[in-house]
Write a structure and sequence with these properties.
There is one protein chain. With about 475 residues, the protein is α+β, with helices and mostly antiparallel strands. It has seven helices and 23 strands. Helices cover about 15% and strands about 25% of the residues. The strands form seven sheets. It has a five-stranded antiparallel β-sheet, with no helix packed on it. The longest helix is centred in the first third of the chain and has 14 residues, at about 20-35. The relative contact order is 0.04.
Length: about 475
């Protein structure tokens, strides 16, 4: 039993109007202290001398206890702990009824928790009391909501995801990956073998040759020098030159062939050697042998038997040479001169204005035409020009041919007769003396388009004649 409180001041010294000694007051405090001593004081358990049980606590007796519960004086008013002063551990052996809760950190041994009902998903539960129902409530049903576990999928999930890779199996439920190129992907996405051949550029009939039994025959033939491939009615065989000529009906040895009848070519033929004709054998052209070339032993003839023209065409020109090509006989150039040669030298050549003759031109008959050879006196006559000529005046020859001029005049001191190509620079070609005698009379030849005049004034022109 604990020690209860007993008043020590039995003499009632501590009373109104009395002088209170320190010993009386000290003794009374000791008695109060002894009554509330933790181990020896009274227990307030309701037994005799222990004091009545404490059923109310707090500054205003807010907290009540009735022997079976500990509760606040009013509902939903008082907190258990504060934000700064928290209780350490809470031990509950029974049911905890919480109208609402906010838990920042919760560590719970769920193996000892007995639910009194299903905790809704919205409250952090599963809304069910079985595993199957919980999976359904949470939307994680294998095979419906999520993929069921599979060893193959687990192996695939372990592969990398680098670009240009292809997955393949290396064993049961075991996968690996290997590189695959753009060309490889283009091939495996084709829907058929034909499409794959097209992708690879080996389409039969367009990229590669389709199989053929006769091509097999040719491929099997021996590759021997000078052999021919010929058909024997069943397949293809290789024959020597001699055998092939016999098969084709071509007589002769390996180097020459003699054709005694007609041989018609229906396609272009290329000769790699000479084509030899005998004397008087013709090379004929045209449906009616319109044109032929032959050598009869004494002459070579080019014969055009029709009334049509014989044309020799060349973009540059045509040249006739002696045998051996040592001398040129004639040349005919397109847009150029046509020249005839004598002993490899040009004698007659056409020009843009006419013909140039090198050497003498001998005519055994009359030369006729609308124009004449460019030689002084040819087709010209002497004409008296005295009335239209004067000294110190330039005249130009515009006749198209050289002309001859004869002048005689009285000059007193003498004057030059001069010729110019540009009417600026003159060259003296003769002189009139003071007595009127002309030096080298008749020697004044004025080329076409040249200018001519008497330099300076003269006393009188006694005569002026021109051969034009």
């Amino acid at each position: 039993m604990g020690v209860g409180y007993t008043r020590v001041d039995t003499g009632n010294n501590i009373a109104d109007g009395n002088v209170i000694d320190a010993a009386d007051l000290d003794g009374e405090f000791d008695g109060v202290e002894a009554a509330f001593h933790a181990s020896t004081g009274h227990t307030h358990d309701g037994t005799a001398a222990e004091g009545a049980p404490i059923a109310k606590m707090g500054p205003a007796q807010e907290y009540l206890s009735d022997g079976t519960s500990f509760n606040p004086k009013t509902d939903n008013t008082y907190d258990l702990g504060t934000a700064l002063l928290e209780w350490k551990d809470l031990y509950v052996d029974g049911v905890a009824y919480l109208d609402s809760s906010t838990i920042t950190t919760l560590t719970t041994d769920l193996s000892t928790v007995t639910s009194v009902g299903d905790l809704a998903v919205a409250d952090g539960g599963t809304g069910s009391s079985t595993a199957g129902a919980a999976r359904t409530a949470l939307g994680v049903v294998p095979g419906t909501d999520v993929q069921a576990y599979d060893a193959t999928l687990l192996s695939i999930a372990a592969l990398g995801t680098a670009a240009d890779k292809l997955a393949y199996t290396t064993g049961v439920d075991t996968w690996a990956e290997t590189a695959i190129t753009t060309a490889g992907r283009a091939l495996i996405d084709d829907a058929s073998a034909s499409a794959q051949r097209t992708t690879m550029g080996v389409a039969v009939g367009s990229d590669v040759q389709a199989w053929d039994a006769q091509l097999d025959d040719i491929a099997a033939l021996a590759v021997a020098n000078s052999n021919f491939i010929v058909a024997n009615g069943t397949n293809w065989v290789a024959e020597t030159g001699a055998t092939a000529r016999t098969s084709l009906g071509v007589p002769g040895d390996a180097s020459t062939a003699t054709i005694s009848g007609a041989w018609n070519y229906t396609t272009d033929t290329t000769m790699s050697a000479n084509l030899t004709f005998g004397d008087a054998d013709e090379l004929r052209f045209g449906a009616g042998n319109d044109f032929s070339i032959l050598h009869n032993g004494t002459a070579t003839n080019i014969i055009n038997s029709k009334t049509l023209s014989l044309q020799v065409r060349s973009d540059f020109g045509v040249t006739f040479l002696s045998n051996g090509s040592t001398e040129t006989v004639a040349t005919f150039l397109a847009d150029g001169a046509c020249s005839l040669y004598f002993n490899n030298s040009v004698k007659i050549a056409t020009t843009t204005t006419g013909v140039t003759v090198t050497g003498d031109l001998v005519a055994t008959g009359a030369v006729e035409g609308s124009s004449y050879v460019n030689v002084p006196g040819w087709g010209q006559t002497w004409q008296d020009m005295s009335g239209s000529r004067a000294a110190s005046t330039a005249y130009q020859n515009t006749t198209g041919s050289p002309i001859s001029v004869s002048v005689w005049a009285s000059t007193g001191t003498g004057r030059n007769f001069s010729v110019s190509t540009d009417n600026i620079t003159y060259v003296p070609v003769g002189r009139l003396t003071g007595t009127g005698v002309v030096e080298q009379m008749g020697s004044f030849v004025i080329p076409d388009q040249h200018y001519y005049k008497i330099d300076g004034a003269v006393t009188s022109i006694n005569g002026w004649a021109e051969l034009r």
